[in-house]
Amino acid sequence: MKVMGIVGWSGSGKTSLLVQVLPLLRARGLRVSTMKHAHHRFDVDRPGKDSFQHREAGASEVLVVTSSRWVLMHESREEPEPSIESLIQRMTPVDLLLIEGFKTHPHPKLEIHRKSEGRPLLCPGDPDIVAVATDQPLPDLALPQLDLNDPAAIADFILAHTGLA
Protein backbone atom coordinates (compact mmCIF):
# COMPACT_ATOMS: atom_id res chain seq x y z
CA MET A 1 0.00 0.00 0.00
CA LYS A 2 1.46 3.37 -1.04
CA VAL A 3 1.26 6.22 1.47
CA MET A 4 1.24 9.99 0.96
CA GLY A 5 0.70 12.51 3.70
CA ILE A 6 -0.97 15.90 3.50
CA VAL A 7 0.38 18.26 6.15
CA GLY A 8 0.15 21.94 6.97
CA TRP A 9 -0.96 24.37 9.61
CA SER A 10 -4.56 24.34 10.81
CA GLY A 11 -6.71 26.25 8.34
CA SER A 12 -4.30 25.81 5.43
CA GLY A 13 -6.79 23.77 3.39
CA LYS A 14 -5.61 20.19 3.87
CA THR A 15 -9.12 18.73 3.95
CA SER A 16 -10.34 20.95 1.10
CA LEU A 17 -7.49 19.76 -1.10
CA LEU A 18 -7.89 16.12 -0.10
CA VAL A 19 -11.59 16.07 -1.04
CA GLN A 20 -10.75 17.60 -4.44
CA VAL A 21 -7.90 15.19 -5.19
CA LEU A 22 -9.63 12.03 -3.94
CA PRO A 23 -12.28 11.82 -6.71
CA LEU A 24 -9.58 12.46 -9.34
CA LEU A 25 -7.58 9.51 -8.04
CA ARG A 26 -10.70 7.32 -7.87
CA ALA A 27 -11.56 8.28 -11.46
CA ARG A 28 -8.23 6.76 -12.50
CA GLY A 29 -9.31 3.44 -11.05
CA LEU A 30 -7.38 3.60 -7.79
CA ARG A 31 -8.68 2.30 -4.50
CA VAL A 32 -7.93 5.08 -2.01
CA SER A 33 -8.41 5.30 1.74
CA THR A 34 -7.77 8.16 4.12
CA MET A 35 -6.57 8.55 7.68
CA LYS A 36 -7.02 11.78 9.62
CA HIS A 37 -5.28 12.81 12.82
CA ALA A 38 -7.35 15.00 15.12
CA HIS A 39 -5.73 17.01 17.88
CA HIS A 40 -8.94 17.41 19.82
CA ARG A 41 -11.30 14.96 21.41
CA PHE A 42 -14.07 13.90 19.04
CA ASP A 43 -16.89 11.41 18.99
CA VAL A 44 -18.72 9.87 16.03
CA ASP A 45 -21.33 8.50 18.40
CA ARG A 46 -24.18 10.25 20.25
CA PRO A 47 -25.62 9.90 23.73
CA GLY A 48 -28.76 7.80 23.68
CA LYS A 49 -27.58 5.48 20.89
CA ASP A 50 -27.08 1.82 21.77
CA SER A 51 -23.46 1.90 20.61
CA PHE A 52 -22.79 4.92 22.86
CA GLN A 53 -24.26 3.04 25.79
CA HIS A 54 -22.07 -0.01 24.99
CA ARG A 55 -18.94 2.16 25.15
CA GLU A 56 -20.06 4.01 28.27
CA ALA A 57 -20.68 0.63 29.93
CA GLY A 58 -17.02 -0.30 29.32
CA ALA A 59 -16.76 -2.05 25.94
CA SER A 60 -13.23 -1.86 24.54
CA GLU A 61 -14.53 -1.90 20.96
CA VAL A 62 -17.95 -1.47 19.42
CA LEU A 63 -18.64 -2.47 15.82
CA VAL A 64 -21.72 -0.89 14.24
CA VAL A 65 -22.92 -2.45 11.00
CA THR A 66 -25.53 -1.44 8.42
CA SER A 67 -26.09 -2.56 4.85
CA SER A 68 -24.16 0.47 3.55
CA ARG A 69 -21.23 0.84 6.01
CA TRP A 70 -19.63 -0.31 9.19
CA VAL A 71 -17.57 1.51 11.77
CA LEU A 72 -15.32 0.15 14.47
CA MET A 73 -14.91 2.37 17.52
CA HIS A 74 -12.01 1.55 19.79
CA GLU A 75 -11.81 3.11 23.23
CA SER A 76 -8.22 3.94 24.17
CA ARG A 77 -9.12 4.68 27.78
CA GLU A 78 -5.76 4.66 29.59
CA GLU A 79 -3.81 3.44 26.55
CA PRO A 80 -1.47 5.87 24.77
CA GLU A 81 -2.39 7.03 21.28
CA PRO A 82 -1.64 4.15 18.89
CA SER A 83 1.28 4.38 16.49
CA ILE A 84 0.58 5.23 12.89
CA GLU A 85 2.09 1.87 11.90
CA SER A 86 -0.41 -0.05 14.04
CA LEU A 87 -3.27 2.02 12.61
CA ILE A 88 -2.16 1.37 9.02
CA GLN A 89 -2.05 -2.38 9.77
CA ARG A 90 -5.72 -2.23 10.82
CA MET A 91 -6.76 -0.75 7.47
CA THR A 92 -7.86 -2.83 4.51
CA PRO A 93 -5.08 -2.71 1.89
CA VAL A 94 -5.76 -0.30 -0.97
CA ASP A 95 -3.65 1.24 -3.74
CA LEU A 96 -3.09 4.52 -1.90
CA LEU A 97 -3.54 5.72 1.66
CA LEU A 98 -3.73 9.50 2.05
CA ILE A 99 -2.89 10.60 5.58
CA GLU A 100 -4.02 14.01 6.77
CA GLY A 101 -1.95 15.21 9.69
CA PHE A 102 0.59 13.09 11.59
CA LYS A 103 3.12 15.84 10.80
CA THR A 104 6.00 14.29 12.73
CA HIS A 105 5.76 10.75 11.38
CA PRO A 106 8.37 9.79 8.75
CA HIS A 107 6.39 9.17 5.56
CA PRO A 108 6.35 11.11 2.26
CA LYS A 109 4.32 14.29 2.71
CA LEU A 110 2.94 17.10 0.63
CA GLU A 111 2.90 20.39 2.53
CA ILE A 112 -0.04 22.74 2.06
CA HIS A 113 1.11 26.35 2.45
CA ARG A 114 -0.86 29.55 2.12
CA LYS A 115 1.48 32.51 2.12
CA SER A 116 -1.47 34.73 3.09
CA GLU A 117 -1.76 32.88 6.42
CA GLY A 118 1.64 34.20 7.50
CA ARG A 119 2.80 30.87 8.95
CA PRO A 120 6.31 29.49 8.39
CA LEU A 121 6.95 26.58 6.07
CA LEU A 122 7.20 23.15 7.72
CA CYS A 123 9.53 21.69 5.07
CA PRO A 124 12.80 23.20 6.35
CA GLY A 125 12.44 21.07 9.49
CA ASP A 126 11.00 17.96 7.84
CA PRO A 127 13.05 15.99 5.31
CA ASP A 128 9.99 13.82 4.53
CA ILE A 129 8.15 16.70 2.84
CA VAL A 130 8.63 16.02 -0.87
CA ALA A 131 6.75 19.01 -2.34
CA VAL A 132 4.78 22.10 -1.38
CA ALA A 133 1.33 22.98 -2.73
CA THR A 134 1.04 26.74 -2.40
CA ASP A 135 -1.22 29.62 -3.39
CA GLN A 136 1.77 31.84 -4.31
CA PRO A 137 5.22 30.99 -5.69
CA LEU A 138 7.88 30.60 -3.01
CA PRO A 139 11.26 31.85 -4.23
CA ASP A 140 14.35 30.05 -2.98
CA LEU A 141 12.47 26.80 -2.28
CA ALA A 142 14.36 23.78 -3.62
CA LEU A 143 11.37 21.42 -3.40
CA PRO A 144 8.84 21.05 -6.21
CA GLN A 145 6.06 23.64 -5.94
CA LEU A 146 2.52 22.80 -6.99
CA ASP A 147 -0.35 25.18 -7.59
CA LEU A 148 -2.72 24.72 -4.66
CA ASN A 149 -5.61 25.62 -6.98
CA ASP A 150 -4.80 22.83 -9.47
CA PRO A 151 -5.94 19.56 -7.86
CA ALA A 152 -5.38 17.62 -11.11
CA ALA A 153 -1.67 18.56 -11.13
CA ILE A 154 -1.45 17.63 -7.45
CA ALA A 155 -3.08 14.25 -8.16
CA ASP A 156 -0.57 13.72 -10.99
CA PHE A 157 2.31 14.52 -8.63
CA ILE A 158 1.04 12.09 -5.98
CA LEU A 159 0.71 9.32 -8.57
CA ALA A 160 4.17 9.97 -9.98
CA HIS A 161 5.81 10.20 -6.58
CA THR A 162 4.22 6.99 -5.29
CA GLY A 163 4.88 5.10 -8.52
CA LEU A 164 1.18 4.65 -9.25
CA ALA A 165 1.24 6.71 -12.47
TrEMBL record:
Superkingdom: Bacteria
Residue intervals of the Molybdopterin-guanine dinucleotide biosynthesis protein B (MobB) domain: 3-135
Gene Ontology process terms (BP): Mo-molybdopterin cofactor biosynthetic process
Q: Name one Pfam family in it.
A: MobB
Which GO terms of the molecular function aspect are on file? Answer: GTP binding
Listed Gene3D superfamilies: P-loop containing nucleotide triphosphate hydrolases
Q: What is this protein called?
A: Molybdopterin-guanine dinucleotide biosynthesis protein B
